[in-house]
Amino acid sequence: MKLTVALVTAFVTALCFSLSGAASAQQHRAPADEPVVVELFTSQGCSSCPPADALLKKLAEREDVLALALHVDYWDYIGWKDIFASPVHTNRQKGYAQVGGRRMIYTPQMIVMGYQDVSGGDAMALAEAIAAHQTTPRPVALEVRRGDGQILVSLKPREVLPDQPVSIQIVRYTALKTVDIARGELAGHRLDYANVVDDLQHVKMWDGQQAIEFTVDFDGALPAAVLVQQSPFGTVLAARRIE
């Protein structure tokens, strides 16, 4: 699919309309401290990705959604190396596919709350997924307090969780980056990328059974969030931005 300004504009307009319509139809929306996590697997070498990238940029403006762009490296061979790509992101996408019983990975792909697979081009499915998760209580209560060079993380199960380990992760991301693409399928385009993941670090395992509290060294100015996820690539049980 060839990129055109009209295509991107039409896609994002329709998608934002769908998102706002689905959200307004709900009686309850998740508070800003319990956002719906949407991970976009994308690439600067993928000609079908710019509409989904533009959508994520709109989602990044919402307090009730934690939108994250994870650039993968498996399209780098077709003429342009994605400067944000990481094999860690590719492995995460492969992990989601394996756990979800999917035989292939693709771009653009959205993973909502760690398990729901949505094509980056399916406006209505994404809107419905976000709206549904806004009405679903989080099974884990997560509190994050930032101090001098550290964050204090508090976790408490709200329900009986599956008997499997839970991974506590810190994700750091850059709010906006602009790239001039010189080669490949998107050659000649200047594109904006929102909430580009720079680092995704596992910091602790938890059994999910008892309340715990612990500290993690943390500094730097990049936006960041804590993810609580069934290990290794399961449901996101809770998420919170580090303020």
Question: What this model shows, in words?
Answer:
- With 243 residues, the protein is an alpha+beta fold.
- The chain has one domain (5-21, 31-241).
- 23% of the residues lie in helices and 36% in strands.
- The chain contains 4 helices and 11 strands, in the order H-E-H-E-H-E-E-H-E-E-E-E-E-E-E.
- The strands form 3 sheets. It has a 4-stranded mixed beta sheet, sandwiched between helices.
- The chain is globular and about 50 Å long.
- Residues 1-6 and 22-28 have low confidence and may be disordered.
Number of domains: 1
Beta fraction of the residues? 35-45%
Strands ordered across the widest β-sheet: 2-1-3-4
- Structure annotation, total helices: 4
Radius of gyration from CA coordinates: 18 Å
Supply the helix-strand structural class.
alpha+beta
The shape, in one word, is: globular
Number of DSSP-assigned strands: 11
Overall mean confidence score, pLDDT: 90
Q: Helical content, roughly?
A: 10-25%
What is the secondary structure topology, with strand pairs?
Elements: H1 5-24, E1 36-42, H2 50-59, E2 65-71, H3 87-100, E3 109-112, E4 116-119, H4 123-134, E5 140-146, E6 150-157, E7 166-180, E8 190-206, E9 212-217, E10 224-230, E11 236-241
Parallel strand pairs: 1-2
Antiparallel strand pairs: 1-3, 3-4, 5-6, 6-9, 7-8, 7-10, 10-11
Short description:
By secondary structure, the chain is an alpha+beta fold.
Keywords:
four-stranded antiparallel beta sheet, single chain, alpha+beta, 36% strand, disordered N terminus, four-stranded mixed beta sheet, 243 residues
